[in-house]
Amino acid sequence: MCCTGVTVQLTIKLNNKINYCIGRRSMTMDKIFVAIDDSEDSLRVLAFGQSFAAQLEADLSAVSVVLNKHEIATRRSTLKARLANHHNENIAIDVVAHDSAKEYLGEIASREDAGLCMMAHGRRPVPEMLIGSVTAGVVRRAQRPVYLCGPRYDGLIHQRVDVLAVCIDGSKLSEQILPYASVLAKRLGARLQLLQVIDTAAARKPTMLGYTDVMESAYLTALARRVEKEQGHEVDWEVLHGDPADSIVSYLADSHNTMLAMTTHGRSGLSQVVAGSVSHEVLHETSCPVAVLRP
User: Fold this and answer.
1) What is the value of pTM for the model shown?
2) Can you tell me the distance from the alpha carbon of 80 to that of 82, in angstroms, rounded to the nearest whole number?
3) Please, which residues bridge with residue 123 across strands?
4) Vertex 194, ends 188 and 197: CA angle to 5°?
5) Is-same-fold flag (10-25+156-293; 31-149)?
6) 48: burial class by Cβ within 10 Å (0-12, 13-18, 19+)?
7) For 169-209, how does the pLDDT look when each residue is reduced to its tens digit (9 = 90+)?
8) Considering only 61-65, 160-164, 266-270, which range has the smallest mean pLDDT?
9) How far is the CA of 189 from the CAs of 86, 184, 237, in angstroms?
10) 58, 105, 280, 288: which sits with the fewest CB atoms below 10 Å from its CB?
11) Average pLDDT over residues 265-292
């Protein structure tokens, strides 16, 4: 994710000339797909998928990918039994054979008329490099946001989406999720909020002398006005201080009915270990669903 610290660009954006054009995105999302496998844990994301689809007034379908055609019947039978045990026997199940679950689900997530929900097991970078991660692979392939529930997701606290909080760090990369978030907030009837984290340790460097509260808020204020003008959606904002991941997780700790939206570099394996990943850490720790986009 791109909330990586101090936004040095503030000083050149104080005149409100935001370089990034918000633009508009079409997002019909008439159908919500929930990716599940034969593990009990994957069924947890169904609760979010059901509430998300209901709020969007969209159809809901569960999808599961197997490697070989002869596995389809067994997987479908297993899933139907487990859905019945969770009183979800009326959910449609589509089991398909494909040599790459990442590619198949990535194609679904890229569709304009669909949204894909997945369970993210929240593995740390090194184990993820060793065992692989379907979720990470889907995010890297998808052309649109993927809606993820981490290991601490709590469907009792987040039963719907009343607030859509978008993490921004001043970079064009982080801003690329804004068109999707704005359209989605309208569809959900949710409040749109911009979040920026200022790394206080970095802000104390000599190059940041004169850094003031006014400068901190100027960028978000200008960006919020830009979104309001171009998208016709009222926006509020909040500046946080401290370590990016810790600050975001702490801010969301007492939230209810919230979804977080953020971009990610989509690094995998060793590069993620070296560079770090705010999105990975936030997804692992927060209890709310997270919309993740790799531009």
Assistant:
1) 0.84
2) 5
3) none
4) 140
5) yes
6) buried
7) 888 889 999 999 999 999 999 999 999 998 776 555 544 44
8) 266-270
9) 29, 8, 17
10) 58
11) 71
Closest C-alpha to 139, from 114, 156, 116, 167: 116
Instruction: Report d(CA 213, CA 263) in Å as an integer.
Output: 25
Cross-strand partners of 239: 196
Which residue matches tokens 């009183």?
A: 87
| φ, ψ at 135 (rounded to 5°) | -60, -50
Query: Token pair for residue 162?
Result: 């009343």
Q: Does residue 5 surpass a pLDDT of 80? A: no
pLDDT band at 271 (very low <50, low <70, confident <90, very high): very low
Query: Burial, 230: exposed, middle or buried (Cβ in 10 Å; 0-12, 13-18, 19+)?
Result: middle
- 10-25+156-293: what fold? Rossmann fold (3.40.50)
CA distances for 22 relative to 115, 226, 231, angstroms: 21, 8, 8
Instruction: Give the dihedral of Cα atoms 177, 178, 182, 188; nearest 10 deg.
Output: 30
What residues does each domain of the chain span? 10-25+156-293, 31-149
CA distance 45 to 40: 10
